[in-house]
Amino acid sequence: MLSGLNHLTLAVTDLDRSVAFYGELLQLCLEAKWNSGAYLSLPGLWLCLSLDPLRGPEPAADYTHYAFSISAGHLPLLVARLNAAQVSSWRDNRSEGDSFYFLDPDGHKLEVHVGDLASRLKACRQAPYAGMVFFTEL
């Protein structure tokens, strides 16, 4: 049986640029780096950056993205840092909890989100999405 998310691997086209983005701008901890990759971490998250020259420059048109948790007090500081670095945003927040949606240097869609699954489910119980059915109790 699955016990959790093990790690995320993102294909990148410029390893040094991506290490700087995730390590310096987003402040993940750089654990290891080699010629074609790097490992970074946050509590509970292992992120692998893998050099892949086949990675295209354009972000996918779908909603697939990777969301990181952030406290309400830290969100404005990070958004200001991302805006100062001229990081592109890709969507406006339309759901429960404050969020900021942005692109990494290789077009991976990212989000920083205030809240968790419990707060999302609470909001959805008050205003369910079309056709929404709940399978767990409060």
Automatic annotation (TrEMBL):
EC number(s) stated in the UniProt entry for this protein: 2.5.1.18
Domain named VOC: residues: 4-115
Pfam families for this protein: Glyoxalase
Keywords assigned by UniProt, alphabetized: Metal-binding, Transferase
Claim: Metal-binding is one of the keywords in the record: yes
GO molecular function: glutathione transferase activity; metal ion binding
Signal peptide limits: none
Listed Gene3D superfamilies: 2,3-Dihydroxybiphenyl 1,2-Dioxygenase, domain 1
InterPro entries: Fosfomycin_Res_Enzymes (IPR051332), Glyas_Bleomycin-R_OHBP_Dase (IPR029068), Glyas_Fos-R_dOase_dom (IPR004360), VOC_core (IPR037523)
Protein name: Fosfomycin resistance glutathione transferase
